[in-house]
Amino acid sequence: MTTPVFRHATTADVPEVVDLVQSAYRGDRSR
After folding, report:
1. What does pTM read for this prediction?
2. What pLDDT, in 10s, does the model give residues 12-29?
3. Which of 1, 6, 9, 29 lies in disulfide reach of 13, CB 3.0 to 4.6 Å?
4. How far is residue 17's CA from residue 20's CA, in Å, rounded to a whole number?
């Protein structure tokens, strides 16, 4: 098993974070 690697988010990560949050709270999977 590999160990997860964590890093601080940058402005380049914003679109991915927005997609993740919106899919969790507004997507079909959240219903």
Report:
1. 0.54
2. 999 999 998 888 876 565
3. 9
4. 5
Rounded to whole angstroms, the Cα distance separating 4 from 12 reads 20
> 19: which 2 tokens?
């997609």
Question: Is the pLDDT assigned to residue 4 strictly greater than 90?
Answer: yes
Task: Report the candidate in 16, 20, 17 with the shortest Cα–Cα distance to residue 29.
Answer: 20
Residue 30 to residue 21: CA distance in whole angstroms? 11
**Residue in 10, 9, 27, 30 with CA at minimum distance from that of residue 19:** 27
Coil, strand, or helix at residue 13? Answer: helix
Q: Which residues contact 9 (CB under 8 A, 6 or more apart)?
A: 17
